Amino acid sequence: MTSDTETVRVVPVRHYGRWLTALLVVGLTVLFVRALLDSPNLEPGTVREYLFKDYVLDGVVTTLWLTLLAMVLGTVGGVVLAVMRLSANPVLRGVSWGFIWVFRGTPLLVQIIFFGFLGALIPRLTLTVPFTGTVLFDKPTSVVVTGTVAAVLALSLNEMAYAAEVIRGGILAVDAGQTEAAAALGMSPALTLRRVVLPQAMRVIIPPMGNETITMLKSTALVSIIAGRDLMTAVQTVYQNNYKVIPLLVVAAIWYLALVSLLSAGQWLIERRFGRGFARGGVR
Amino acid sequence: MTVTDVTTRTATRPMVRAEGVTKRYGPVEVLKGIDLTVAPGEVTCLLGPSGSGKSTFLRCINHLERIDGGQLWVDGELVGYRRHGDKLYELKAREVARRRRDIGMVFQRFNLFPHLTALANVIEAPVRVLGTPRERARAEAARLLERVGLADKAGNYPGQLSGGQQQRVAIARALAMHPKLMLFDEPTSALDPELVGDVLDVMKGLAADGMTMVVVTHEMGFAREVADNVAFLDGGVVVESGTPAEVLGAPKHERTRAFLDKVL
Q1: Where do transmembrane segments lie in this chain (chain A) (predicted)?
Q2: Domains, chain A, ranges and CATH?
Q3: Which pTM was predicted?
């Protein structure tokens, strides 16, 4: 026991080990970055030259709207698939399961190439009125499903499968008592889903869907394989002509990193908003 | 059983009539033939140990559970079925929802919608189900919240309310549909002891206004004071029923006596 007037100096533990490891890691990082920068093939001048070229910017814009469209279509389709998957109708359940099984079970790259060459499987797209023979629509598949259309189809159908599982998880996370309370008030199943279940499922759905969006932005690079006119396609077209592969990949990487940072900031804002709702026991 | 007694005594159509209602979950028979009649304007308390089937039976009344045998009527209409000739046709989800409008239900765990304010909870069903104009629904919801003593909590989310307050909002939410029958499934069992009184007071007020109520409860004081009829359930059957004085005061059956000895 010390008397309370006495002042005692506190000596914190000295972490010599920490200092040593920190020094080691900093040293290694400096060496690595210098090795990168010393490479004559990095060509910072070339990177600066192409970073804001109009066709690169066009590619950025295409990548952005491709991401947006695929996410919107994917989310809408995902809600439908999730509801089908939870339906009492075994046929709807089965179809939804099968769709998710195929689109989650095959590589996105395979799906993109498949839709790119859809014309080889179905040469013509024809729509007729049944039993009358009246032709409403008849065109070669390759004319309708251009590279861009194929890219949108592949990305959004693939996203539907993943979004369906995220949304299904969100719906299942809503307490069964909520559905019962809505039922006891005379609300129909459809009204209950729209007004009671989905708004509450949102809290669980939003964070993984933010991740899905970030993944999607980067996945759009795959459509360069079928000339999807996105950022990666633009960059590839350039380096296939001038062979400056590394600087142009750096250009693409800078743009993807910038866009993902923007999306991450957006995700943070949305999650904070929904977190605030959670703190007081509700969304909104 | 008391079925015929009660019908002849009141000489009106019973609000709830159950005859030999059975319900099973897989191999377990939860209800083994429930007979019960609730006259309009009466308060009936269902008592019994946990697992006796009282909550299950209550949930059968508004078809949250489907019965496996026997017959069950609410206000003269079969629950969950439509009779046509000698056949029973199961009702569609929409028709079931329609009949539930007239039956209010209050749950043990409140089940308020957490993403809506107290007021929005109360107006949700009148506006979306009955098509009541929003302004009229709001005015009525304000009156109902005042009636349950929560006029100043209209803008609060359920997460900002105590259990007792949430349960009173839940009662207001059920009343907003102008039900002819109110079902209470252990409404005070999830509450801190000092909050039970407020909820019971609201329920007493409802009973005094002539609301027909079926209440599953462990509150013996409430049953004794408010109930017109008490039914004691055990093992999926009604062991004994009658006035509170008969069942609680002078139980005839050994099982009723054993239960009351434990809870009183």
Answers
A1: 19-37, 57-83, 95-122, 142-162, 245-270
A2: 46-274 (1.10.3720.10)
A3: 0.80
